[in-house]
Amino acid sequence: MIDLSRQKLSRWMRSQFGDRGFRLFVRLTGLAALAALLVGVGIPAMATSDLLASDPPAVRSFDADSILQQGKQAYQTGRLAEAAALWQQAAEAYQQSGDTFNQVRALNYLSVVARDLGEWENAQVAIERSLDLLHNQPQLDTRGTILLAQALNHRGSWELAMGQSEAALSTWQQAEAAYDRAGNEIGKLGSQINQAQALQALGQYRRSRAILTRMTQDLQSQPDSTLKADGLRSLGRALQTVGNLLEAKAVLEQSWAISGRLGITTDTGATLLNLGNIARELQQYDVALDYYREAAARGGTEMAIAQAELNEFSLSIATGAFERTFALVSPLQSRLSQLQPSRDAIYARVNFAASLMQLPENPNNNPRLLKLAAEQLATAVGDARQLRDSRAEASALTELGKLYIQTQQWQEGKAATEKALQIAQAIDADDAIARSASQLGYVLAKGGDRAAALAAYATSFESLQSLRGDTIAISSDVQFAFKDSIEPIYREYTSLLLQAGATQAELKQARDVIEALQLVELDNFFQEACLETRPVQIDTIDPHAAVLHPIILNDRLEVILSLPDGSLQHYSTSLPSDRVENILQQLSSAIYLGYSKDKHQPVAQQVYDWLIRPAKTELENQQVKTLVFVLDGFLRNLPMGVLYDGRQYLVEQYGIALSPGLQLFPEALEKSQLKTLAVGLTEARQGFTALPGVAVELEKIAEEVDAQVSINRQFTRERFQEQLDAKDFGIVHLATHGQFSSNPEETFLLTWEDKIKVHDFDRLFNSPERSDRPVELLVLSACQTAAGDRRAALGLAGFALRSGARSTLATLWSVSDRSTADLMATFYDRLVRSDAKLSKAESLRQAQIQLLKDPRYNHPFFWAPFVLVGNWL
Asked: pLDDT tens digits for 674-701?
């Protein structure tokens, strides 16, 4: 019998697994055909109860079967605490009657619902009891082997939730073997997907991808069947989770088509919802709308229809289709009123209320709609309490607090939010803690209690950091977008830290918070946590480098300056963020051809005055030669070298580098590592114009370094992979069309016959055939950022990070290929032949200055777009 209080259990788990292991919760692909073997984990709570009472009442096996079935019905309708009680009773009854296999079945179900309810100890006890019972059997038949595989699947889920990723991988491999012995193909498929997720948690993305690719190939070779449709559906969801949206779309569409040909209706609505969500992520809003409407038409249950209509409702708001939005309000209200209390129904009400609160202010509608939102949230809170679903209650209370805050009922908002935070902390639900604690911090800051507000934001930040790697999925129960829910927490906390008179400790914390945001943005871009941070002190790498963190906040532009002596400074410009962005966009336009110096220099000087002038004296005093920028927002799309002090451009005064943060490689470039692979296209391909100057560019590079050159038909994906695998190249130079975008699917490099997407870069540069030595320098010399994309430079960072290169030299817009050839020749000459052993940043600076002094190319359009990302040494 278990008799641990929640507090004692928390302390014990932390002592065993550490804070991160304790806080992580598992994300598993839901597959109905697996009968809850691959359940998505939420972390609500139920009242602590003993799993196995020592003196259960006598119940006949027939009654136990009925109770087991009642538990299934309760679970499927979201009555989780009731399902747990019924399955516990069934397990006790089967134990009394000596029906071991059915006892194991009930315990397996019980472990699922205990995990869903956040009762990790109860889940573990049920799993281990199942395994003990099965291991004590002299021999397992097919049924017993499948039950063993199911119990192992549940143990793997528990281990992954506790941060024991290697153990989870091993356990799921055992589960796969058990399913294989039982001849259960769908079970094998589920275990393989689980292994892929464990490998992702271990950071072994290539191995994870290999499993998913192999599964795709295996399923494609099979004839149409229910198994194939179910397998493809599950695989599509897994591919969607890791960010391979186009593949996920293709696989899910195939599953849907097979289901249609075979007349399968199970999970069709869920598949259409997934397809709609993928289309929405790809900004194909009309396609998404069609999928949502088709899902509603085929939904079957009231809950499935409501989910589809809620997705359409939120999409209509996001796209400004308010006429359609208002038309959906009454039908949604009516449909939700027909739902029985359940977890899904609670979250549907919370989603509906959250969407209502996002509607633009309208005196004719807002009071009525906000009242409706309040009614939905009050019902959600009441239903959650009735079901003893603490996680759902915390979500509903947080949203209710937000509604009070939105209507300036500060005390009521504070009380609801504090209650939500208490519940979230009691069940250690980090996503709920992050939302409620940040909301409490906002209220406290509005009330003038800065110290308490900072403490609340620190709690929220700590929870988000614990969840890093899972922030793309922390809102699986309630629909929250990264821009709407996660990013504001970081910015609000940073804004509160950067007040007048901020201490060195507060400046350091603000810098750490904004760098954490940079990493989360990249995680969100890749749809996986691909970066492990290793902060370093700049002065230990380069005593003549300073780091600037410009931060765009709602009401001002802040700059944190990290100086070589280890001290931090900050200064700010009071200007609304939309005004800052407007000026930055003016500069972005003015540095293109067709605009004279009179157009771009005044704006470039204004941005210089924001970012550089307040620090100029200190930079001179500490003899700074290199400026490293960790840029924010639209600043990422601008070349910092074009900033102007009224006499000179910044590039004429300092070497310049960009960084996603202080994740740096301290080693300087070894001259012996300059064996170069140079590839490119000169001919027009796939709708892109010819680049005749590329031939000259690659020829000049070959004159400067030991280069292996491939051009046009020789530059295919397969050939490029073979070349990378065959030798350790210190430099990889790609002179080809490319685009950087905030959408990974629109971030690519052009080869002779296809496009290399950013997600492919990891496989190309880190294939098993390659040595562990990273590329020192990646050069992308004919790329451009996507027009109109404020966050396009994320794509550049994506290529840089996916390649694993220590440094990346790229262009922010496509430049005259003749001037590029001249600049690259000078860059390599300075990098390789100079007796002064120039750094990459200084080599680039000198190459840019030489172009600037050439009357043909002195406009910033020609020399400014070249940026160095990563290590500048």
From this structure: 799 999 999 999 999 999 999 999 999 9
Give residue 473's pLDDT: 39
At residue 60, does pLDDT exceed 80? Answer: no
**What phi, psi does 356 have (nearest 5°)?**
-60, -35
Contact (CB, 8 A) for 866 and 809: yes
Q: For strands 783-785 and 807-811, give the pairing.
A: unpaired
- CATH for 267-339 (3.20.20.140, 2.40.50.140, 3.30.420.40, 1.25.40.10): 1.25.40.10
pLDDT digits (tens, 9 = 90+) for 710-724: 999 999 999 999 999
Both tokens assigned to 818: 């003749």
Average pLDDT score, the chain: 84
**CATH number for region 344-533:** 1.25.40.10
CATH architecture of residue range(s) 541-658:
2-Layer Sandwich (3.30)
Per the listing, tokens 């800051």 go with: 445
Burial of residue 507 (CB within 10 Å: 0-12, 13-18, 19+) is buried
Q: What is the pLDDT of residues 99-110, one digit of tens each?
A: 999 999 999 999
Residues 6+ apart with CB under 8 A from 445: 453, 492, 496
Of the CA atoms within 13 Å of residue 405, those in its CB half-sphere come to 23
DSSP code string of 514-537: HHHHHHHHHHHHHTS------B--
User: Does pLDDT of 541 surpass 90?
Assistant: no
Cβ proximity of 496 and 450 under 8 Å? yes
CA distance 282 to 280: 5
User: Which residue in the block uniquely carries the two structure tokens 């750094």?
Assistant: 839
Residue type, 323: E
**What residue segments make up the domains of the chain, in order of their start?**
1-203, 267-339, 344-533, 541-658, 671-870
What residues contact residue 793 under an 8 Å CB cut-off, 6+ apart? 631, 636, 637, 740, 785, 812
